[in-house]
Amino acid sequence: MSRQTDSQKQRLFKVFRLCAVLLLGGCAYAVFCRLTGFGIPCPFHKLTGLLCPGCGVSRMCLSLLRLDFAGAWQYNPMLLCLLPFGLAVAGNVAVRYVKTGSLQPDKWANILVWIMIAALLIFGVARNL
Fold first, then answer.
1. Cβ-count burial of 83 within 10 angstroms (0-12 exposed, 13-18 middle, 19+ buried)?
2. What is the pLDDT of residue 39?
């Protein structure tokens, strides 16, 4: 076994471990929200009374867990639309990290991130008009 293969296996284990931690944390948060009815409040909304681009993301995710796509759309349509693209970028970074050890995304993924940021900013302004 080559040294590079060992480090690739270690990096793959790190990626799986991070995914497991995020999945467990998300599930724990979902259970907490379902049992208590409380979620993380948006500080931007509390301070300004306006909706930020991320307002509704917890309720959107809880709706997705119930496969309620119409409900998820109501809470945050932009993030719902951007979710597959965000997963593609995360997947690109994960694969690149396992193969090379670099956390730098490919050029297309970098461009996509900037497009997503612009879309969220426009959505954040438009949803408050």
1. middle
2. 87
**Geometric angle at alpha carbon 67, from 64 and 72, rounded to 5°:** 45
The pTM (predicted TM-score) of the whole model is 0.84
Span 58-100, pLDDT tens digits: 999 999 999 999 999 999 999 999 999 999 999 999 999 999 9
C-alpha separations of 80 from 36, 96, 116 in Å: 25, 25, 12
Are 54 and 79 contacting, i.e. CB atoms less than 8 angstroms apart?
yes
Burial class (CB within 10 angstroms; exposed 0-12, middle 13-18, buried 19+) of 61:
buried
Q: Is the pLDDT of residue 3 over 90?
A: no
pLDDT tens per residue across span 99-119: 999 999 999 999 999 999 999
Which tokens in the block code for residue 25? Answer: 């944390």
